[in-house]
Design the sequence.
């Protein structure tokens, strides 16, 4: 019988590599003119990535600077109703920072706000105050409870924006994959924010990254029970809600996506919004996949797609709400 190796040596190796990575990236930050993935020893980066891919991106983000993190802010009374705050360290612009509330993906089955430090920190370092929010997941809840959570998180951002140093007239909602669905529903279907006393008209824009906007019946086995397959609820897809009153929109996806159809979802929703007279920015990325599209917010993966630059440009160009 062959005994499985103890996890302890592997964990010690991961921690050693994590410490080594932080030292290397801090050295990079002082040099400023080099790229992280050229300075970080490739063997250390590969080994650290094997330990935990998202942790690798967050290790690099934590050393890059340009932001202050404030974790575990409650936006509701339930354990999952918390968010992490990423505030730029630079001088705020007149009126305050633009504010983005971000929802991650995971087929409404998995995910945690701590895994997306690399998203919050990357945008904060570029002058955007970011709230990365958790929401309840299956099997604890099914549709539409995670939308109610998301609406509460966005409402918290709208209400608290000025106190946090943000501009309440420059608030955006953004999500990737399942989080893109959540964001789209909040921005396009007024039912959800109405329960919090707010409305989509208060948003300066919304940002959807590889979200499923038209996907019933779904072949995603994880998502099927979330939406009561085969008895899907009515009026539960973003593709049903484009209108002339929708906020300015940024939609992006990989050209090829094995999980969410970019043609059926991203391109179709962009076309419907455009036909309704909504200002739409559509970006399709050749080198990205469903997962590396969000990974490209981190410095080592920015060569995959300029999605960070494109999102920041959209936010900076969007006029404040009236």
Sequence:
């Amino acid at each position: 019988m062959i005994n499985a190796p103890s996890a302890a040596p592997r964990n010690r190796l991961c921690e050693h590599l994590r410490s080594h990575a932080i030292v290397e990236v801090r050295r990079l930050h002082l040099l400023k003119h080099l790229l992280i993935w050229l300075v970080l020893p490739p063997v250390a980066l590969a080994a650290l990535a094997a330990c935990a891919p998202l942790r690798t991106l967050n290790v690099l983000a934590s050393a890059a600077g340009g932001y202050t993190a404030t974790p575990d802010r409650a936006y509701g009374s339930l354990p999952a109703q918390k968010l992490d705050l990423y505030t730029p360290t630079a001088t705020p612009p007149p009126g305050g920072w633009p504010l983005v509330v971000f929802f991650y993906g995971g087929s409404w089955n998995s995910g945690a706000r701590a895994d997306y430090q690399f998203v919050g920190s990357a945008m904060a370092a570029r002058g955007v105050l970011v709230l990365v929010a958790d929401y309840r997941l299956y099997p604890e809840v099914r549709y539409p409870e995670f939308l109610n959570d998301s609406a509460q998180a966005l409402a918290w951002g709208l209400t608290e924006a000025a106190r946090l140093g943000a501009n309440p007239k420059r608030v955006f909602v953004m999500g990737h994959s399942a989080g893109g669905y959540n964001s789209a529903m909040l921005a396009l279907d007024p039912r959800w924010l109405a329960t919090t006393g707010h409305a989509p008209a208060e948003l300066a824009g919304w940002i959807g990254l590889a979200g499923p906007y038209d996907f019933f019946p779904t072949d995603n086995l994880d998502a099927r029970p979330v939406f009561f397959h085969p008895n899907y609820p009515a009026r539960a897809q973003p593709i049903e809600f484009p209108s002339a009153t929708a906020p300015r929109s940024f939609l992006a996806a990989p050209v090829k996506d094995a999980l969410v159809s970019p043609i059926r979802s991203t391109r179709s929703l962009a076309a419907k919004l455009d036909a309704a007279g909504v200002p739409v920015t559509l970006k399709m990325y050749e080198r990205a996949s469903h997962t590396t599209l969000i990974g490209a917010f981190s410095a080592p993966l920015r060569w995959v797609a300029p999605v960070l630059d494109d999102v920041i440009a959209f936010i900076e160009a969007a006029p404040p709400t009236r």
